[in-house]
Amino acid sequence: GEVLSFYLSRLLGLDNVPIVSLSKVNHSSVQWKGINFSKLQWTEGNLVALIQWIPGISTVRSHVQMPEIIYKAYLQGKPLTGSQLQQAKLNKTTLSDIVQWGSMIIFDFLTANYDRVASMQDAALKEKRPSILQEHIRNLRKSPTSGKFWLIDNESGLLDAYDLLYRDKISGKNFVSFHQQMLKTMCIFQKSVADSLQTLKSLSAPHLKLEDFARYHEPLLNKIPKDYTYSLFKSMFSKRLAEVSNWIEYCKTR
């Protein structure tokens, strides 16, 4: 899931998902020199995912909250539009954050990520306390120097997440709804991301495009066996692409 999510981000033209590289544990290799294998509990020959370390995003300053204008749109059940932004006269930093939120919403919808905004929507529903969404967003960080958002911990994306949404009859239905609510809160998207999504959506088998792209750059992906979650990814990825595409087309009329 982490690998496919990373390569999906690249197909969409996003550069704010940490690089993921697969590697086979080899105790005698120079690459692994100085690694405490007993502490990691990694055995010889294990296939592991190595994820890019992003400096500066482990501090309190890197935490991200939902912009007030998006939060209000979410509560009202009406999408945030370009004309609203013009009327709001927001500063450049806030505008940049809002645009990055749009890209994150698309990415999380396609991967069905349940451990970022959706998990907070779940908590808000269970506790009947919408203000939970105004807290620090889980697994989202912002570089204090560049202002770039970093979407971290995408392990569940596309595989386990699809399993939760489409096999779990109770929780799954809620999480499908959470993603739809968040998508329909936003009509502000980067043109480059929207165009890349449309290109992917136009293919007859977009899931194969993603797989082939990932395998080309990460040959070790072939070593990971496909389990029952793959069939859901195969059948539902194109449908989620179409759902986002249709929403973007609707937003163009707003």
From TrEMBL:
One of its GO terms (cellular component) is extracellular space. One of its GO terms (biological process) is cell-cell signaling. This is Four-jointed box protein 1. It comes from Octopus bimaculoides (California two-spotted octopus).
